[in-house]
Write a structure and sequence with these properties.
ligand-binding face of the semaphorins, domain 2, binds 2-acetamido-2-deoxy-beta-D-glucopyranose, elongated, Si:dkey-49n23.1, secreted, Methylamine Dehydrogenase, Chain H, Immunoglobulin-like, mainly beta, about 35% strand
Length: about 775
Amino acid sequence: MGTAALQRQANGRTQTLWLRGPCLLVLLLLMLLLLPAISDTRQEALARLQLSYTDLRSANSSAAFWGDGESGGYQALLLDEDRGWLLVGGRDHIYMLHCDNLEQLAREIYWPAPKEQVEHCRQAGKNVLTDCANHVRLLQPFNKTHAYVCGTGAYHPVCAFVDLGHGTEEPSFQLPPHTVESGRGKCPYSPLEPFTARLSDGNLYAGTSVDFMGTNAAIFRTSVYGSSPHYIRTEAYQDHWLNEPEFVGSFPIPDTHSPDDDKIYFFFRETAVESSQWDRHVYSRVARVCKNDIGGKRSLINRWTTFLKARLVCSVPGPDGLDTHFDELEDVFVLETKDPQNPVIYGVFSTSSSVFKGSAVCVYSMASIRAAFNGPFSHKEGPDYRWVEYKGRIPYPRPGTCPSETYDPLHKSTRDFPDDVISFMRAHQLMWEPVLPINRRPVFMRVSAPYSLRKIVVDRVDAEDGQYDVLYLGTDDSKILKVISIPKENWETEEVILEELTVFQKLTPILNIELSTKRQLLYVSSDLGLAKLPLHRCQLYGQACMDCCLARDPYCAWDGTTCSTYFPSNKRRARRQDVRYGDPRNQCDMEDGSKAVEERLIYGVEGNSTFLECVPRSQQTAVRWTVQHPLAHNSRDLLPMEERVVHMKRGLLLQRLDPGDAGLYTCLAQEHTFSHILARYRLLVVPRQRVVSTPVREPGNSGTLPQYGQPPKSYKDWHLMGTGSLSVDEYCEQLWYREKRRQQKLRSLKWKQAADSRKARVRRHNPLYPLP
Ligand SMILES: *[C@@H]1O[C@H](CO)[C@@H](O)[C@H](O)[C@H]1NC(C)=O
Ligand SMILES: *[C@@H]1O[C@H](CO)[C@@H](O)[C@H](O)[C@H]1NC(C)=O
Ligand SMILES: *[C@@H]1O[C@H](CO)[C@@H](O)[C@H](O)[C@H]1NC(C)=O
């Protein structure tokens, strides 16, 4: 304690300034000052369309698979779009489901851990129910007829082939027992340890630990043919290779046209050796190895000789070069492009800061990742033994280069590398330059949200005004956010949350997401089950061209009669869509707004209240009310602080009506730069003395008619639509108290949260404050 690092980003390079003892206070103050700079100046937009679990189900926009009650923990998914099935790995089970019909279970394999292994696990002090089961954690495609599967096997990992058969109609689905082999170096022991593995050309590349305690973690390559003992790994217990890594993803990405150059890229977070010797700091990394690396001859035997890693930065530039870093990588998605060597890399990050909780999405180009690996190496040197840029001689062939006979006949394999290359590789895994995101800032950020982001998939969509990357972000509380980031001037981007969907009934982290572009579906898994969601719900945006346009959903367009799916190739009709600006004025034949919205007549009784309903379609809409009194020429704004006027979520409540309140009330919606009329009411105020004692309860009472306009035809005119037998007044009163209670609750909740987080902050930073 007493030491903290202040990160300063200068010319894209991180320098760490050391502050000790009393400086901690200054630092704390600084952080507290900086915090509002992020959370207050940025107004975080709400999702335009928010659908609860019940909304999704009742709109038939979600289907689910819940297993058979014995399984759960659905971490592994494998989708075969062509044959139309989805494999799901859970606790002790593998399921084969129909892509289009999750409710109908196609096949199931029961694959528990052996009884003696469960007993072993229990004796080692693990929880029998949660840990000592076979948690299926990996499903990889192998060949046309088989998939490769790994499970934790009650803290004794195992892998096997699953036979899927040839036919598409009635697939065979079984796990031949003779194919079961050890999963060491392929799958972790623990059901929760973050891990990654990828099959490529019959080899499994995995980032996992190989011991019960999870302390010996490495990047492995093992063969999946039989029980071949041959493997390659990173050196064990050497913190400059890997230091308490938590693996997130791995992907084969070709570097050039030559297969000799093929590499596997790994993404993970780890305790950063270069950040400090005293303070634990987590950084995110991208690392790579050559697929044809077979280890060294005299030294680095069965160890990678081409392993390099670089820091992956996701930060928000702040004033005075002081950046806010999102250091902990949570998930990576590799978006394929036409050029196989240059996919786009999307990363989801969270903060390790104790001051605030936040998540961000950053995007990286392969060019920037390659630039870091082609740049200078880092090196531990000097009297204080710090990590600095290596400025010495770099041996030939450049460390990290894949051996290639066509390029240099002397270096057919990594065993032919000269000794100086091998000894350089023993100490220089870390690159000096970090990898910075495109535009040097996140494309999406949440700092005050009640959830954090865990998973990402991305769909590249062609729209009328260009191409958009639609991000699907899984949260730790059962939600999927559908987000687009729209480029603006000055490298800025506008974040638009199109939809926020609550996929599961209970709050639970999203564990995995699979995207089917062919079926335009998303498969989302959690501990509870698996859900299938269409990528778009255009009809829910509304019944008018204007609503469809305002939605800014690249999947949806106005086709002349409805808001429906947009097909870029479909040139039959003009489609109305404006993702960039969401401005219906350019797209829709806008009728004169005042004519389009019907004026409704409302009677109020002097001294009583009345309620004018106006519900906007989107959470992003700002609602404004104006009133024009009978003798006035202009209408004026009704301000929220006006006496007797209450602006509520679903409309306007006018209390203790006065004859002067009569007039034309207009509800205006403002979204982006576009404003339109949602509702118009002509309010007539009936003087109290003109209403007999109980006019509302006596149908047919015609003795006392209001003096203005059309007289009410029956007592029903005194009631609001859909309020049952309540009078206008009773209804309003109820609404008013409900709203008041809701606001009170919100206020006290916010106050409590603020107090709690203040307390937590003080506790964390003040060693004198006793910990609970
Ligand atoms: C959802 O599906 C059910 C059964 O197929 C149907 O009765 C219902 O009308 C559908 N609801 C909507 C909103 O489409
Ligand atoms: C796929 O791999 C399995 C396991 O090695 C093997 O038994 C099977 O014959 C292979 N199928 C094809 C079509 O190559
Ligand atoms: C007006 O309010 C009074 C007192 O709250 C109530 O008795 C009366 O029924 C109300 N009139 C109407 C028309 O709602």
